[in-house]
């Protein structure tokens, strides 16, 4: 059977963990306990609590077992198998001990001699680790001595600035990788320097007009996605990712049509704020995957949003001068229409993927 995997998430005042244990191995370790039909019984919670411990200077941390559940997993060697997931929290008497401690873990190991446990730090906000796992050691039985050696965990020094700067970088990286968000920004800005007349776009309104219109659109979009980023990251509202991605494609399609024919002239600011609400929900999915305390989450939302804005402003600073120059030429109508049609086709393809 596969070994166990323990993922640790370093929070502000505690460490939460997820232990994934092959069900068959757990049964072998608890052979005296013959009723495994209900893993929510107190006896199982007591067992896990007794075999998952952290110690600093001979002082035991408080261990709480939050929940236990049984799932079906897949392994390339053994195929499908059942796995028990234990969610726990370890709380030190002093939060300064969070970065250096002894991890005593012998679930299954005290009975199944060939069992191994891979221990990862899945998230460490103060060290600037986001969305990546870092192996800190393997716990296994020392067969000649017949003992399980505890794992000494020594994390690098962390700081608030490391955590915040990593979230800023994550926001910037998300915009660079999110081709749908990039495309939406570009299409939204295509007609921002033009004056509408009926159902057609006239010539440019001048630099001052373009910059004013641009500032209003970008500000409205920023406010919109900041609101839903905060709401979504706090999980006050939970919307499945697929409908959100579909709506983002719709926002690109509508903006592309507007870039060809002004379907909402004079209301670009309102539309940008509405579309911003949708895009903010997509941004929030990045943060909801992370385990954070309330203060960590608020600072993460702030840093992530700052990163998004930095990258958006960088893109705008590159694109707008080009658009302003091209808008004064006779070729801009063709260029604008070509970009808008290509964007609309891409949006339709993305929409089909989510139907």
Describe this structure in words.
It is a single chain. This protein has helices at residues 23-29, 42-51, 160-177, 179-189, 207-233, 241-260, 268-288, 294-327, 332-353; strands spanning 4-10, 15-22, 52-56, 59-60, 62-75, 79-91, 100-105, 116-124, 134-142, 147-148, 151-154, 194-197, 200-204. Helix 4 runs antiparallel to helix 9 (332-353). With 355 residues, it is an alpha+beta fold. The strands form three sheets. It has a seven-stranded mixed β-sheet. The protein contains nine helices and 13 strands. Helix content is 48%, strand content 25%. The protein is elongated, with a radius of gyration of 27 Å. The longest helix is centred in the C-terminal third of the chain and has 34 residues, at 294-327.
Oligomer: single chain
Which band does the percent of strand residues land in? 15-25%
* Total strand segments: 13
| Share of helix, binned | 40-55%
Rg over alpha carbons: 27 Å
Largest sheet: 7 strands, mixed
Output the number of helix runs: 9
What's the overall geometry?
elongated
Structural class: alpha+beta
Strand order of the largest sheet: 5-6-2-1-8-9-10
Which regions contain 5 or more consecutive residues with pLDDT less than 50? Answer: none
Report, as a whole number of angstroms, the end-to-end distance: 39 Å
Reading the helices and strands in chain order gives EEHHEEEEEEEEEHHEEHHHHH
Count of domains = 2
Question: Which descriptors apply to this entry?
Answer:
355 residues, alpha+beta, 2 domains, 25% strand
